[in-house]
Specification:
Elements: E1 3-9, H1 14-27, E2 33-38, E3 41-46, H2 52-55, E4 61-72, H3 76-82, E5 93-97, H4 105-113, E6 129-135, E7 138-145, H5 173-181, E8 190-193, H6 200-208, E9 211-216, H7 219-231, E10 237-240, E11 253-256, H8 271-285, E12 291-296, E13 307-318, E14 321-330
Parallel strand pairs: 5-6, 8-9, 8-11, 9-10, 11-12
Antiparallel strand pairs: 1-3, 1-4, 2-3, 4-7, 6-7, 12-14, 13-14
This protein binds S-adenosylmethionine.
């Protein structure tokens, strides 16, 4: 049964959030169709309801709600006449406006509230169900419940400042999670991070429920990764070694954040030489269509004839550092 959803994308990188949403839904066979997009709001039609385990994977998608009504720009009174009562069983609810177009919040809450049984309790602080009203190019009414929670807020619990082993250069957990989602790894597969550092990417792989493998050339990084994973009750196979250690493992995808010349050691190897050596190794280990998702600061170093760049997202950190999230596929 076809369903329509309203995706609210995180403001940090709308394009990455959009790609994460659509690519994961495509990979998981939801056959998504984008019906419209207004800034960070995406209306997507899929061929079946989106499962909870998919919702909780999203790192860059702030919220997903199920569309009850989706029309061109019309007045609330006109919609109210057309929509049936909103069924929310015996759950508590709150009504929220996504954009205030000079419309009266209390008028909209009153009109929409009349569509919900008076037996349902209003809870403005912690409702089981939220009804959203959005009026822009389209007028949208959607319904959210706790089973639809994405990981956008929860991801912050994985932030470096809450981990026992700190690294100033560990990638933000929301980006790490979306990188893992872009790897197109089967649920029962394995993802490797061969430059795992303190384990920021390993945490997201393991939290999603996919087997994680980590390698780092510095011995204490193995300890730090394992310590950070344990803090969240997660686990991974982590070993100390050079990038060549990937030859000891089988995996379905690589998600990684290689050294880029700031704060990390390469044990004396130049970043360009290490990148070339890594790409040669990755291209041998990956099978056709398998993915490598990397955060890099010099995208021009990604040159390997059997690795095809599918997407590149620019990620501004500060005036002297921009990182690029590269989605690469073995030809
Ligand atoms: C940018 S950091 C990774 C940060 C990591 N994402 C985190 O959450 O902490 C790159 C890591 O690559 C490791 N490294 C450098 N050269 C390596 C090599 N030849 N083989 C494996 N690891 C290496 C460094 O020790 C460093 O921990």
């Amino acid at each position: 049964m076809k369903e329509k959803y309203l995706f609210e994308l995180g403001g940090e990188n709308i394009e990455l959030g959009k790609y994460e949403a659509i690519d994961l839904l495509e990979y998981e066979n939801y056959k998504p169709q984008i019906l419209s997009q207004e800034i960070n709001l995406l209306v997507v039609e899929v061929i079946k309801p989106i499962e909870k385990k998919i919702m909780r994977r999203f790192g860059m998608v702030k919220r997903v709600s199920n569309i009850i009504n989706y029309l061109g720009n019309v007045q609330i009174e006109e919609i109210i006449e057309k929509i049936p009562d909103i069924e929310i069983n015996n759950k508590s609810f709150a009504i929220r406006l996504l954009k205030k177009n000079g419309e009266s919040e209390s008028k909209i809450a009153k009109l929409l509230g009349e569509k919900i049984s008076s037996k349902n309790r209003i809870d403005l602080n912690n409702p089981d169900v939220k009804i959203f009203y959005y009026s822009g190019e389209n007028t949208i009414i959607s319904k959210w419940d706790k089973n639809m929670e994405t990981y956008y807020s929860k991801c912050l619990e994985h932030h470096v400042k809450y981990r026992p082993y700190f690294s100033p250069i560990s990638i933000h957990p929301r980006i790490a999670r979306s990188m893992v989602n872009l790897a197109r790894c089967p649920w029962k597969g394995k993802i490797i991070d061969p430059f795992c550092g303190t384990g920021g990417i390993l945490i997201e792989i393991a939290d999603i429920g996919i087997d994680a493998i980590g390698i780092d050339i510095i011995d204490k990084m193995k300890e730090y990764s394992l310590g950070n994973l344990k803090h969240y009750n997660l686990s991974a196979a982590v070993s100390c070694g050079d990038i060549e250690t990937i030859n000891d493992y089988n995996f379905n995808a690589i998600v990684t954040d290689p050294p880029y010349g700031i704060s990390t050691t390469t044990k004396g190897e130049g970043v360009s030489k290490l990148m070339k050596r890594s790409l040669d190794l990755f291209s041998i280990k990956l099978k056709p269509k398998q993915r490598l998702v990397m955060a890099v600061s010099k995208p021009e170093l990604i040159v390997q004839h059997s690795l095809k760049i599918i997407k590149c997202f620019e990620w501004y950190i500060h005036k002297s550092l921009t990182r690029y999230i590269m989605v690469i596929e073995k030809d």
